[in-house]
Write a structure and sequence with these properties.
- The protein has a single domain (2-131, 194-257), classed as Rossmann fold (3-Layer(aba) Sandwich), CATH 3.40.50.
- The chain has helices spanning 2-8, 27-35, 61-73, 89-99, 123-129, 134-137, 161-168, 174-183, 194-197, 225-233, 253-257, and strands spanning 12-16, 39-42, 81-86, 104-110, 142-146, 154-158, 187-188, 212-215, 241-242.
- The protein is globular, with a radius of gyration of 18 Å.
- Helix 3 (61-73) crosses helix 4 (89-99).
- 33% of the residues lie in helices and 15% in strands.
- It is built from 11 helices and 9 strands.
- The strands form 2 sheets. A 6-stranded parallel β-sheet has the order 2-1-3-4-8-9, sandwiched between helices. Strands 5-6-7 form a 3-stranded antiparallel β-sheet, with no helix packed on it.
- The chain starts with a helix and ends with a helix.
- One of its GO terms (biological process) is salicylic acid metabolic process.
- This is AB hydrolase-1 domain-containing protein.
- Residues 13-240 form the AB hydrolase-1 domain.
- GO terms for molecular function: methyl indole-3-acetate esterase activity; methyl jasmonate esterase activity; methyl salicylate esterase activity.
Length: 260
Amino acid sequence: MEEISKRQHQHHFVLVHGLCHGAWCWYKVATVLESAGHRVTALDLPACGASAVRAEEVRSFQEYSRPLLRVVAAAPPREKVVLVGHSFGGHNLALAMEAHLEKVAVAIFVSAPMPVAGWPMSAVLEQHLQGDSASHSFLDCTFGIVGRGSENPAETFLVGPEWMSRRMYQLSPPEDLTLARLLVRPAQMFLRDEVMTGEKVLMEGRYGVVSRVFVVAEEDKTWPAKEQRRMAASYGPRMEVRAIRGADRTISSLAEHALE
């Protein structure tokens, strides 16, 4: 009986990184979760982390999300996974929730866009990019256009070292910033992709019914906390936003609070 009870409290966490990052950015979170007895799958999406694919070779957001969709689809019949997405990874979570709602126990959006059913997934991201602080928020980040011909070029984005130091890793140990500077790669936002812009991609009866948690990073300098809360509130009265003290600094808070 004790062994059965132990298994019931173990979960399969699937961790999805944000833009320009890879599975490597979860190394501390994965360690904490595995030490607590959970199963962890940290993904490298195409052209990210250790992926051999280049950014311009990824043709669509559907293709970019394929590793996540495959992992969720492969979950055993009686197993439900816990999806965790940071930043841009919230879009990938939404697509997986829509496609495999029966296999997702809960989706955890960590300072990540949480699309609204019936609206384009790109809407929240576009609002952020057009916000009052957007004009001065990118510092030494770079935008580029590469490959694929003049009719369908790949528009890429790469976080800069100064931007990472001042806005993303300002609370992190210097070793983590060094690691990130070595491993970040150019990535696409897929703002013109038909899956990102379609109004019928996410349905209330599928994506809309999956349980979710939104973790507000109060000290996030890439996306102000008030904007995070406003976005979460736009989902409607069924969305509960809970503050987790120290969420910006304490990696174990994710495992301790997300499944309460």
